[in-house]
Automatic annotation (TrEMBL):
Residues 315-379 are annotated as: Disordered. Keywords: ATP-binding, Nucleotide-binding, Repeat, WD repeat. The keyword Nucleotide-binding applies. CDD domains: STKc_PknB_like, WD40. This is Protein kinase domain-containing protein. It comes from Sorangium cellulosum So0157-2.
Length: 681
């Protein structure tokens, strides 16, 4: 393999004293990509350095740098809105050791390969094709990310396999879009200066193999999001067929192919079986005239999804008053009400916590209102079977739903307990009457829930977060900002904000009433737990034996080390004076947040701590473990107060009611037990 040249001479040095440059990992027409190391954050980064003519004047450099920094800021904002866009960490310019003026962009480091290399390896192996459904699923995260930008009026202008990175996140590949804004700033620079021509250099701000007619010839109109739609359709054809969609060996031949109205690229021409409706959608995306195409990637992917799905008969809807004959889509917020099926089991009867729905909707857009009537929570009378058993002696209530396993619990201030089941069902239980109020089905497996300020947030295996208005019993917003399962959430009742952590390594902070992204942070690994810490900030944990503390804008403040174990669950006392971590070694670590000193390490359980909760006074901790025990502790001393439960199966989740009078625990045996305390334990 040919060694890549260090054009700038940065290897072995640091940029601005912050980024150590380790090696050249890529080179292209725009510049050189280095693997570097962020000395402040103590993690690997990618550093993209742009190649520009050395004869540029000082005013030209200043003009270019101002535009480049603005595009870097744009990329930063977009990457905070979508995990499908590579995260931008810094932008600037510096003089290299060889004296070359170097505009640079610092990005998150991704493990994986660009999609063009994946295509090449598949061709070399003799299996270049993918089933059409697999190709659509593969490109879905990129379509989602592009749609977020398109809805803000921002276009990429160089969508191609080399700019789609197949990153390994949580041991499964997902696409991230690279080089947002680079094509625009280089194109604008080339069109406003004669430096390139004078020095014999040229800049081509798009790749002809994936070029739209308006990029070859401006007489077709301006470039925009519709340009990305054209390129995305070409990449889709290539992903499914294993062959380039545009025929041609040079710029002129590709221009002719891209603009030939009589012979358009198609799935069928390259031997990909596709329904006529799907082929029609692709043909519209590849229309020669920009005004005839879909305006955004989201419109394109939604049309593709509708074309692939049969019409759902109204009889399949559980709530027939809301039935219609349009294609069923998870964009509606709630899936058609079909009979409940038994959830797959794993060892000890536990549900597979990492199981994803097989059928994934190919595009998940940012939070938005749906232009159909919101689905109303189904009255309990329509539920097939809910079993409630009350033990008057122990003052406990046991709840189960045959065929469903409870995963997650949350109490609200109005005397309700919400139970999330893995198969996409949420149940609301009235604590006063010990009877169910209503149940709600969502479009994916329920992984976590949290409640506050009249809202119930439902985090799903698909990466969606549904926001249900508890009073109206309707899902009014769906946040689609994660590309993998949402593992943990917490609601700030006063600020009406929601923090979420996902397998895609992202921590996101959202405004609940507006459904808008406020801030965004990133972990090296998939996130296990997030929590507001009561001091105006947040904390998060992953598998790397650390707990990270953030401020209210998700800027990193400190990293708490856990020796020999990883935190599986976090809980903060209401006053913010304690932060507790339940770990996979069965111990609970508790920090005093005044000085962030570890107060104690409590050997609490024989197996991993799955869930924890403080009482409203911050004096009591309840913990549940995979060893089947539910224990009650005194927070200040770590003294055991009582064993609340000792079950044959693992405890998945525990919760304490806001008034401190109820504790609930869910087990993998399919039951939820609700304990009532007449006084503090």
């Amino acid at each position: 393999m040919q060694e890549l040249a260090d054009f700038f001479g940065w290897v072995g040095t640091t940029i601005e004293g912050r980024y150590r440059v380790d090696e050249v990992v890529g080179e292209g027409g725009f510049g050189v990509v280095y693997r570097g190391y962020h000395l402040g954050f103590d993690e690997a980064v990618a550093i993209k350095c742009l190649k520009l003519p050395t004869t540029m004047s000082t005013p030209q450099r200043e003009t270019f740098l101002a535009a480049f920094i603005e595009e870097g800021r744009l990329l930063h904002r977009l990457s905070r809105a979508s995990a499908g866009i590579v995260q931008a960490l810094d932008v600037g310019a510096s003089l290299s050791p060889t004296g070359v003026w170097t505009p640079y962009l610092v990005l998150e480091w991704l493990r994986g390969v660009p999609l063009n290399r994946d295509f090449e390896e598949r061709r070399a192996s003799g299996e270049p094709r993918r089933p059409l459904a697999d190709a659509i699923a593969l490109l879905a995260p990129a379509a989602m990310a592009l749609d977020i930008a398109h809805r803000q009026g921002v276009a990429h202008r160089d969508v191609k396999p080399a700019n789609l990175f197949l990153a390994e996140i949580s041991d499964r590949p997902t696409l991230k879009v690279l080089d947002f804004g680079i094509a625009k700033v280089m194109s604008d620079f080339a069109s406003t200066t004669q430096v390139m021509a004078e020095t014999g250099n040229s800049v081509q701000a798009f790749t002809p193999q994936y070029g739209a007619p308006e990029q070859f010839n401006r007489s077709f109109g301006a470039t925009g999001p519709w340009t990305d739609v054209f390129a995305l359709a070409l990449v889709l054809i290539e992903a499914a067929s294993g062959r380039f969609a545009l025929k041609g060996d040079d710029f002129v031949q590709l221009y002719v192919t891209a603009t030939d109205r009589a012979h358009r690229p198609s799935l069928g021409y390259l031997g990909v079986p596709a329904p006529a409706a799907v082929e029609a959608v692709v043909q519209r995306a590849l229309a020669v005239e920009p005004r005839e195409r879909y305006r955004t990637a989201g419109e394109f992917w939604d049309a593709l999804d509708r074309a692939r799905k049969p019409t759902v008969p109204p009889s399949l809807y559980h709530n027939t008053a809301l039935a219609d004959t349009s294609p069923a889509s998870p964009d509606q917020g709630i899936a058609p009400q079909a009979p409940i099926e038994a959830e797959p089991k794993t060892k000890r009867g536990a549900p597979d916590a990492h199981r994803e729905d097989v059928a994934r909707h190919p595009i998940r857009r940012p939070a938005q209102r749906i232009d159909r009537p919101p689905r109303v929570a189904t009255p309990v009378a329509d539920e097939p079977e809910i079993r409630l058993v009350h033990d008057a002696v122990r003052d406990t209530t046991s709840l189960s739903v045959p065929g469903l396993t409870p995963r997650t619990l949350a109490f609200d201030e109005r005397g309700s307990l919400f139970v999330g089941f893995g198969m996409g069902v949420v149940l609301c239980l009235d604590l006063a009457t010990r009877s169910p109020r209503w149940w709600q089905r969502v479009s994916s497996s329920v992984v976590c829930i949290t409640v506050g300020a009249g809202w119930l947030a439902i985090g799903c295996g698909s990466g969606d977060i549904h926001l249900l208005n508890v009073s109206r019993r309707t899902i009014e917003k769906t946040i689609r900002g994660h590309s993998a399962a949402v593992r943990s959430m917490d609601m700030h009742r006063q600020a009406q904000t929601l923090v979420a952590g996902s397998d895609d390594k992202n921590v996101t902070l959202w405004s609940v009433p507006r459904g808008e992204l406020l801030h965004h942070g990133m972990h090296p690994g998939r996130i296990r737990s997030v929590v507001f810490n009561g001091l105006g900030g947040l904390a998060s944990a992953e598998d790397d034996e650390t707990v990270r503390v953030w401020d209210a804008k998700l800027r990193p403040k400190r990293v708490l080390q856990i020796d020999g174990a990883s935190a599986r669950t976090l809980s903060s006392s209401p006053g913010g004076n304690y932060l507790a971590a339940g770990c996979d070694d069965g111990a609970i670590r508790l920090w005093d947040t005044a000085g962030w000193e570890l107060k104690y390490r409590l050997i609490a359980h024989r197996m991993r701590v799955a869930s924890m909760a403080f009482d409203p006074r911050g004096e009591i901790v309840v913990s549940g473990s995979s060893d089947g025990t539910v224990l009650v502790w005194e927070a200040a001393s770590g003294r055991t107060l009582r064993v609340l439960g000792d079950y044959a199966d693992a405890v998945e989740c525990v919760a304490v009611s806001p008034d401190g009078r109820h504790v609930a625990a869910s087990c993998t045996d399919g039951t939820v037990r609700v304990y009532r305390w007449s006084s503090a334990p």
